[in-house]
């Protein structure tokens, strides 16, 4: 629910709660005033009558006046109190209820005590309450109207700095330079919020830049000792060494090789996560695919692996060339490494998807788990376990979806180039090449 | 060949120097961009090995300097960063090739020689010869005693690698990296390399060439130039 709506409902709630209380108070107030005014007036009438009696007009002269009543009281004392009697009645000719008020005063006139009573009809409770209700309804109607007209204007005006801040946060990218610009505002809460946001954004940028710097430095620092190690070992192999020493050196070289590969891959994964490979370029996927398959043509023929390629021409994708190369290389070399002697590899590529399947032994890990870092099957002794993790990460930053499954002796990896995956294409396969021949283009 | 090595890590610079000296090249080192510029201003070289990450400045500035001074030496850039942008910028600024750390020394040597060949033998036939072996790097044709060998592209590259790095022990990793690059787990099945070497030796023998390629126990292979 929007803030403005909440506040509006709150205001309406308050209004509705206080209305009965106010109405009650008003009602009593109005009723009392009406009564009081009438009492004063009726007393005045009594007084006037009393003066007339004083002048000698007989009491009976007022007998026919229905609003007056004069009584003669026994006794010689006059009570100075005013007596007020109210009663509810019914007026048959007006077909309505009445509210009667009678005011009595006592006077001593010519040694007789008279009680003069004047009465009148004044507004009934019903009159008052219905009048009040009318007022309330008008009041509420005008409040609602005013609220509905003004809240949208008010909200736009008051919340403008807030909305601007929200927009600025939306567009905020921790990697870009430049401070978070939030406007000035007269509302103290928004001012506080803006100050806080600016501080937080600056801190986030600083932290990110520091971390990036650190990982770049660490990466550089690690590479150089590795380079020294490798070069010194190579120079060592040029010297006089025994067979025993040679095997130690070989193990060392293998370990350095692995270290180097793992380091390079982890660096790449970090760069991918930090989205350092953003690009607006387009690359020719089919061309890269061709180049890489050619690179392994010797290996394929040595293993007796036959390869079929069903690649459409002119597949252009928006992705970084290095990423394309790594994606294809990883998948192709995996397909070769986990293959059987005399096995096969099938490659299909369209503008919508890329699928590579190969013969091979069943994986002993859940297929989807192989995408995790350092997870590898027992058949992959020398691998770093990072190949598929890279592939998955590349797919993520390029907005591709990837699946891997194993069925009936075939591993299949399928990459869909847009989030709207195309359903499987049904193209005729080219005939498989015989193992001894080199791969045809 | 006279080479200027611009590398801030002294151990690595020394390794490279030792390697190149064994090839009878003349080497000089510079540890900062500043030092590199002074040396370039005073002496002439055939090739420059240039590290991008130098303590005082980017190595690309040295490249710029060379460009402005019209020093048309062969330049091989070394970098720890696997960055495409650096690569592209470097090549645009006039570098001839690019190699990432940590590299194999024979790999560095092979590329250095390739750069040198292209610079020195501009237009002329790009050939590498050793005794009865003749390798044409333009056409990727290998001849032994005049006979054309039926080598696959990878076998040609392998033979070239051996000849350029003659008498050097080439580890299986170095060979694998040379043939297939370093973006994969190198198909760490060294059986492939064994096969390639075996096939190559067979083809050379078939053309009556000497069997220069030897296995070095536990370490790799070597092209023994002293055989007769």
Describe the structure.
The complex is a heterodimer of chains A (441) and B (228). Chain A has nine helices and eleven strands. With 441 residues, chain A is an alpha+beta fold. Chain A has a five-stranded mixed sheet, with helices on one face. A four-stranded antiparallel sheet of chain A has the order 1-4-3-2. Chain A has a two-stranded antiparallel sheet with strand order 5-7. The radius of gyration of chain B is 18 Å and the shape is globular. The model of chain B has no long low-confidence stretch (mean pLDDT 89). Chain B has 228 residues and is of the alpha/beta class. In chain B, the strands form three sheets. A five-stranded parallel sheet of chain B has the order 2-1-3-4-5, with helices on both faces. Chain B has a four-stranded antiparallel sheet with strand order 6-7-8-9, with helices on one face. Chain B has a three-stranded antiparallel sheet with strand order 10-12-11. At the A-B interface, helix 4, helix 5, helix 7 and helix 8 of A face helix 1, helix 6, helix 7 and helix 8 of B.
């Amino acid at each position: 629910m929007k803030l403005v709506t909440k506040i509006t409902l709150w205001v309406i709630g308050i209004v509705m709660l206080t209305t009965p209380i106010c109405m009650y108070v008003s009602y009593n107030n109005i009723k009392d005033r009406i009564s009081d005014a009438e009492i004063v007036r009726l007393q005045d009438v009594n007084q006037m009558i009393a003066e007339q009696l004083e002048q000698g007009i007989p009491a009976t002269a007022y007998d026919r006046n229905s609003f007056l009543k004069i009584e003669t009281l026994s006794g010689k004392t006059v009570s100075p109190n005013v007596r007020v009697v109210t009663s509810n009645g019914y007026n048959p000719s007006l077909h309505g209820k009445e509210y009667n008020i009678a005011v009595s005063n006592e006077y001593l006139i010519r040694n007789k005590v008279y009680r003069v009573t004047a009465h009148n009809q004044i507004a009934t409770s019903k009159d008052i309450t219905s009048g009040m209700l009318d007022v309330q309804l008008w009041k509420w109607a005008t409040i609602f109207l005013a609220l509905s007209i003004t809240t949208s204007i008010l909200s736009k005006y008051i919340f403008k700095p807030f909305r601007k801040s929200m927009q600025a946060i939306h567009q905020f990218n921790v990697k870009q330079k430049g401070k978070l610009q939030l406007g000035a505002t007269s509302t103290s809460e928004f001012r506080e919020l803006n100050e806080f946001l600016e501080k937080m954004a600056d801190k986030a940028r600083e932290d990110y830049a520091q971390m990036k710097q650190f990982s770049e430095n660490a990466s550089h620092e690690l590479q150089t000792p590795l380079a020294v190690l490798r070069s010194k070992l190579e120079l060592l192999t040029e010297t006089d060494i025994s067979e025993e020493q040679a095997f130690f050196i070989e193990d060392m070289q293998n370990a350095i090789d692995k270290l180097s590969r793992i380091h390079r891959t982890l660096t790449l994964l970090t760069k991918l996560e930090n989205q350092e490979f953003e690009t607006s370029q387009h690359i020719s996927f089919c061309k890269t695919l061709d180049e890489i398959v050619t690179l392994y043509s010797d290996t394929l023929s040595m293993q007796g692996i036959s390869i079929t390629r069903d690649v459409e021409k002119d597949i252009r994708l928006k992705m970084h060339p290095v990423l394309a190369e790594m994606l294809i290389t990883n998948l192709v070399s995996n397909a070769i490494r986990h293959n059987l002697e005399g096995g096969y590899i099938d490659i299909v590529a369209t503008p919508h998807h890329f699928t590579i399947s190969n013969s091979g032994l069943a994986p002993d890990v859940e297929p989807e788990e192989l995408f995790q870092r350092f997870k590898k099957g027992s058949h992959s002794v020398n691998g770093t376990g990072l190949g598929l993790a890279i592939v998955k990460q590349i797919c993520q930053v390029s907005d591709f979806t990837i699946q891997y499954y194993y069925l009936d002796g075939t591993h299949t990896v399928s990459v869909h180039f847009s989030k709207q995956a195309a359903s499987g294409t049904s193209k005729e396969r080219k005939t498989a090449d015989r193992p001894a021949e080199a791969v045809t283009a | 060949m006279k080479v200027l090595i611009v590398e801030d890590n002294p151990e690595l610079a020394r390794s490279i120097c030792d390697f190149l000296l064994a090839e009878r090249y003349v080497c000089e080192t510079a540890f900062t961009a500043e030092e590199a510029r002074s040396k370039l201003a005073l002496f002439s070289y055939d090739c420059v090995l240039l590290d991008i990450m130098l303590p005082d400045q980017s190595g690309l500035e040295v490249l710029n300097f060379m460009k402005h001074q019209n020093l048309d030496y062969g330049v091989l850039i070394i970098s720890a960063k696997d960055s495409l942008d650096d690569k592209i910028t470097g090549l645009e600024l006039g570098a001839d090739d690019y190699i990432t750390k940590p590299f194999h020394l024979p790999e560095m040597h092979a590329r250095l020689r390739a750069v040198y060949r292209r610079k020195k033998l501009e237009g002329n036939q790009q050939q590498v010869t050793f005794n009865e072996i003749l390798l044409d790097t333009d056409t990727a044709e290998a001849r032994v005693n005049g006979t054309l060998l039926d080598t696959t592209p990878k076998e040609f590259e392998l033979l070239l690698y051996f000849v350029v790095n003659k008498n050097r022990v080439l580890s299986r990793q170095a060979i694998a990296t040379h043939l297939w690059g370093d973006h994969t787990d190198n198909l760490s099945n060294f059986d492939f390399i064994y096969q390639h070497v075996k096939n190559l030796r067979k083809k050379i023998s078939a053309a009556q060439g000497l069997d220069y390629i030897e296995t070095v126990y536990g370490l790799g292979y070597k092209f023994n130039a002293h055989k007769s």
